[in-house]
Design a protein that fits this description.
The chain is an alpha/beta fold. The chain has four domains: 75 residues, Dna Ligase, domain 1 (2-Layer Sandwich), CATH 3.30.1490.20; 116 residues, 2-Layer Sandwich (D-amino Acid Aminotransferase, Chain A, domain 1), CATH 3.30.470.20; 252 residues, Rossmann fold (3-Layer(aba) Sandwich), CATH 3.40.50.720; 169 residues, Rossmann fold. 37% of the residues lie in helices and 20% in strands. Helix 25 links the parallel strand 27 and strand 28. Helix 19 packs across helix 26 and helix 21 runs antiparallel to helix 23. The two termini are 39 Å apart. About 2% of the residues have low confidence. It binds adenosine-5'-diphosphate and magnesium ion. The site of adenosine-5'-diphosphate has 19 residues, from strand 2, strand 3 and strand 8.
């Protein structure tokens, strides 16, 4: 059927939705079962018209003015004879909810076999496009709110997982003596709607929402007995998006992450502007390539020869840092004359404020003419230890495995400096600001292709081309872990995001779906984000074996109890050890007060026995017998301070390394160093943290942090596992 014509007809009649009959024909066209039906104009014409139907049947009013037919008295089910249909329609015509409304006719259709009422639907996310929904409850869907979303197109696995996401999924399997219904029939319907060749992917943008409510699912099949295709208010079109570059992404951005020539626009010859600070910082950070200050008149800036424009530098420019008034930026980019590979525009006053939108467009066009790619505007800069480029003043110089993309500059600084304290080492951190040209997708492609990067972290408030983001992540298929800290996941957060960088923050449902479908991991706070990155940096993920069983070992009984609860809520189990493990631990004759069941709770005294080496025996017994997926050792540092001359903590770390080496790859090992906050304990903590990190043992502040990081690891490991 010609959907464009149906939409035009509906619009012509002033409707905001397709009529039910047309909707059902669209569903039938993609392989979804709908009841056999006829449309009649009124009671008097019914009897002959319905003769071909299998009774009993249903009669429904058709009217653009009636949203919920049954609420208006416009649905009569179980009509056994043509006469009953006639009477039902006569009664409907004078029902209070219908009388006086414009009625287009009556739909008479066969009854679907009894079953479970399910709702399926589509909703267009501003960033990700069509999202498919499935839920339980038919008319009670709003009350139960038991629904699951996925980004289209979905795979068969996605469809099956959507059902598993429903709290009431057991109803499908026949709870309380009810007959089970066909999950396969629901999955098939979802695929007919939202699969690769499904209806939703081919629907014109003018269709804003689809509601199949209910889909009646029985043991043998599913029938769509109601269909609503809601049109968008105006003739809206999908927004035009730039066509991404293709080819080796690692090569494409090489000159950005390891620039040999840097131009700096906005440095003053007489005072200290932001760009001067940048030059000083680059020198201190050890940048050894060429720096060309750009200045209209000065011969030198900060003792470096200056040039009047970026087109006049001795060599072409790999990276051009621009921090001047917004209005001057387009001209600078235009004058690049193909000699600048990447420009990073620090200046603000563009798309993030309403009257700067036009200027941002100008910037983009000027950059195109000038032949350079742009990062920003409205961002802080780039940190790339491999290229010895930095924007935070204090940043580690070593190159590490964590590649970060940040839509916010301030948060980017926090990620580098706080991450540094935790031992995180970066392959890069790029702030993308308003993403007028290059954005999160381009940088994500780079990091996924970059051999130096082992894990990607992103702070985003919105991505412009959500489809491409979804595709890139899906293609990655969780080969490299990607941790996403999404700003603006709630309604209020979204309002803040809109005023912050002008991004259209996406709907939270889409992001949850994204994580489920691509295996990326969502973090809620900066702390979680950093803890997860730390875990992925240091631990070796075991794909297909999702971390589940945890052994907890340390000092502090109450702490262990609280941790057991919290780990459990994160989906991780701290189950008591089996008899063999407990036997082995008992054989070590730990002193009274030591609990060996898991959590293993050892007072400081025990941990200090034999210069702390008892701990090694305990760990050895746990690894040999219990074989947990992860071991979390936690130490309350204050309890160790001022006790004897030996260094039990150092011994404990050594012990952990030895046991890890003896049982390679068997369990993730995490250390939690709990501080009282007093300066001496804090100082000791940093020392031990560095010591542990030097042997690749990640250190967390509290057990909760370790739990969140391990849960992220577990989700990543379990992604796509059968
Ligand atoms: P509305 O949602 O506009 O009130 P529906 O077409 O969904 O109207 O019908 C209301 C209810 O009637 C459905 O939720 C379903 O329980 C029942 N129903 C409607 N059509 C059929 C049918 N063909 N077979 C079985 N039950 C039906
Ligand atoms: Mg309905």
């Amino acid at each position: 059927m010609d959907i464009e014509a149906a939409i035009a007809r509906a619009r012509g009649e002033g409707r905001n939705a397709l009529d039910e009959e047309t909707g059902k024909r669209l569903l039938a066209g993609c392989g979804i079962a709908v009841p056999k039906s006829v449309v009649v104009s009124g009671a008097d014409k019914t009897e002959a018209a319905v003769a071909g139907l299998r009774f009993p049947v249903v009669a429904k009013v058709m009217s653009a003015e009636i949203l919920h037919k049954s609420d208006a008295g416009g649905v009569k089910v179980n009509l056994a004879t043509p006469a009953a249909v006639r009477d039902a329609i006569s009664a409907m015509a004078i029902a209070p909810g219908i009388k006086g409304r414009k009625v287009d006719g009556y739909l008479v259709e066969e009854m679907a076999p009894a079953g479970q009422e399910v709702v399926a639907g589509m909703f267009r996310d501003p960033q990700f496009g069509p999202l498919i929904m499935v839920g339980l409850g038919g008319i009670f869907v709003e009350v139960l709110a038991d629904v699951a979303f996925r980004i289209c197109p979905i795979t068969e696995r996605d469809a099956a997982e959507m059902l598993d996401d429903l709290r009431g999924v057991k109803l499908l399997d026949g709870a309380r003596g009810r007959a089970p219904v066909s999950r396969k029939a629901i999955i098939d319907t979802l695929l007919n709607l939202g699969g690769k060749d499904g209806l939703l992917m081919s629907l014109p943008h003018a269709v804003a929402e689809v509601d199949v409510n209910p889909l009646i699912v029985s043991r043998d099949g599913a029938v769509a007995v109601d269909a609503r295709f809601v049109l968008s208010p105006a003739d809206s079109e999908a927004p035009a998006l730039p066509v991404p570059e293709t080819g080796d992404a690692a090569k494409r951005f090489e000159r950005l992450f390891a620039p040999r020539t840097i131009a700096v626009v906005g440095a003053s010859a007489t005072s200290v502007a932001m760009a001067n600070t940048f030059i000083g910082r680059m020198k201190r950070f050890g940048y050894d390539g060429a720096i060309y200050p750009i200045h209209p008149t000065a011969a030198t800036v900060d003792d470096l020869p200056a040039y009047p424009s970026v087109a006049e530098t001795p060599e072409p420019v790999d990276y051009c840092y621009i921090a001047v008034g917004a209005a001057r930026v387009p001209e600078i980019l235009e004058n690049a004359k193909g000699r600048v590979a990447f420009a990073q525009v620090i200046s603000s006053g563009f798309g993030e404020i309403s009257h700067g939108v036009g200027l941002e467009q100008e910037l983009l066009e000027a950059a195109r003419r000038g032949g350079c790619r742009v990062l920003g505007p409205n961002c802080l800069g780039l940190y790339s230890p491999r290229g010895k480029v930095t924007f935070p003043e204090t940043a580690p110089t070593e190159v590490g495995p964590v590649g970060v993309i940040s839509q916010s500059g301030g948060l980017g600084t926090d990620i580098v400096t706080r991450g540094d304290r935790r031992g995180i080492r970066f392959s890069g951190l790029v702030t993308i600001g308003n993403s007028a040209d290059l954005g999160a997708n381009d940088m994500l492609e780079f990091y996924l292709a970059d051999p130096q990067t082992k894990v990607v972290g992103m702070y985003v408030e919105g991505v412009r081309d959500g489809r491409r983001f979804f595709d890139v992540l899906r293609r990655n298929n969780a080969q490299k872990p990607v941790v996403v800290l999404k700003g603006g996941r709630t309604q209020k957060g979204q309002a803040a995001a809109a005023s912050h960088t002008g991004a259209l923050a996406g709907d939270d449902r889409a992001w949850v779906a994204l994580a489920r479908q691509t295996g990326c991991v969502l973090a809620d706070t900066l702390d979680e984000f950093l803890d997860m990155l730390l875990a992925f940096q240091t631990l070796t993920a075991r794909k297909g074996r999702a971390t589940k069983q945890i052994a907890l070992f340390g000092n502090g009984g109450g702490t262990s109890v609280l941790a057991t609860d919290f780990f459990y809520r994160q989906g991780l189990d701290i189950d008591p050890f089996d008899a063999a493990t407990q036997g082995a631990l008992n054989a070590l004759k730990p002193p009274p007060g030591t609990s060996i069941a898991n959590p293993v709770d050892a007072p400081v005294g025990t941990l200090q026995q034999e210069e702390g080496r008892i701990a090694e025996k305990i760990l050895d017994a746990i690894y040999s017998h219990a074989k947990p997926d992860a071991v979390v050792m936690h130490l309350n540092l204050a309890a160790f301070v001022g006790r004897g001359t030996i260094d039990p903590l150092d011994n404990l770390i050594t012990a952990a390394v030895r046991v890890q080496e003896k049982f390679p790859g068997q369990a993730h090992f995490l250390l939690v160093l709990r501080s009282s906050g007093s300066p001496d304990v804090e100082a000791g903590k940093q020392r031990y943290r560095d010591r542990a990190m030097s042997v690749d043992i990640p250190v967390f502040d509290e057990l909760g942090n370790a739990a969140v990081a391990l849960a992220a690891m577990s989700r990543y490991e379990g992604f796509g596992a059968a």
